[in-house]
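Quick one - inputs below.
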Amino acid sequence: MRLGRLASTIAIHIRGKDLPTYTPSVDMGAFVIVVNAEKIAVTGKKRYQKLYRRHSGRPGGMKVETFDQLQQRIPERIVEHAVRGMLPKGRLGRRLFTKLKVYKGPEHPHAAQKPVPLPISDKRIMLDK
Amino acid sequence: AIRITTRVKRGSVARKYRKNILDFASGFRGAHSRLFRTATQQKQKALTRAYVDRKNKKRTLRRLWIARINAVARRYGSTHSGLIHDFYKNRVLLNCKILAQVATLDAYSFLKIIEEVNEKKS
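Output:
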């Protein structure tokens, strides 16, 4: 499963753009649970060349990591970072982001909500499979 | 020239003028609904924005309708642009975007419309 394609479909479902009752000013999307986050893939040399940057606010505080290193350290963050960039920015966007739950490994604690598998209608993902 | 200046008391004219503006600004936040001078500015802004937004409303509503039609269309394998193209080609001109209401409230009818157009295509 490729990072950007997955993140794109996730963001659409979180935002609710697949529903005929779509309303941009309201949080009416679905919750999305992502498992096996450490299995996410990128093509080409991105595994060793894609950089994740963050800045601590202090001078000289820029920290840079590659996709590879981040995946070993905190794999959930890769998916979160990708989806966050695809959600709207702003108060509602931040609230939407809390609807995303990402987990390493195949288990998640939300069995009580009876999650259904996400319907993927993106042609690029279907073709991949 | 002889100027006759009779005495004029200003009376409550000023008060009425200020009250008028402050009534318009009721419900505004903080000083904007209480202080006359700031309220005047906010009234001006409010009226200007209302004018602009009456024009913008037409645009934003159309965007919303298109997004909703797109959502339903993609669920059934086509896209908003594809649907509209088919509607125009087959002279289904009934569909003003406001019939995105149909898609939202009465999904079954919307599907029937799509099916009819698909039949007309083939």
